[in-house]
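Write out the 3D structure for:
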Amino acid sequence: MKKSNASLAGQFLRRLRRFVGMGSALMVAVGLFVLAPLFTPAAALAADTSGNWNLDDGSGHRLGAVLFERSDINSPSGLRLRLNAESAGLKLDHTHPLVLRDGNQQTWSLANLSQELLPTAAGKIPVDSSQYNAGCLNPIPTDGITMQIIVPSSAGDLSFDLVPGQIQTLHSLTEATKGCSKTGISG
């Protein structure tokens, strides 16, 4: 009987160790799942959804970017890129164009259309927002080539590296508008 109790106790201890081992593994897996977003590189965070991006230049300047179709009867329709400063004190330029540059040294100048933004109660265009003509990039940016977006601001020209998903979005949007004129865009 003593031997039988000892073997039962041994079996219980083995099962307990196995259970604790599985529980520890589960806790580590859950911990990694919960903590992984905190350690994700900024470039990966920038690949949000198609046409809705977070940009970070790695020097403390952050922008939110939205690509959308403008369809106001008071303004020309077309694709727009709206930028919103997410860094305190950063003011975006309302007069100079935005520049896109790819790894092949091809550049595009997007006309500044910040005058289309709704003015504040004081009648001024918001200093933390700017808007650009994003249609008709001609020639169409090559898919798979690195791209930078150069944004004029109160801190000088800020350079943001686009991630592959953002480049693909620009490529597909401009592919859809192949037949439009080059107004406001230069290649």
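The helical segments are 2-35, 42-45, 164-176.
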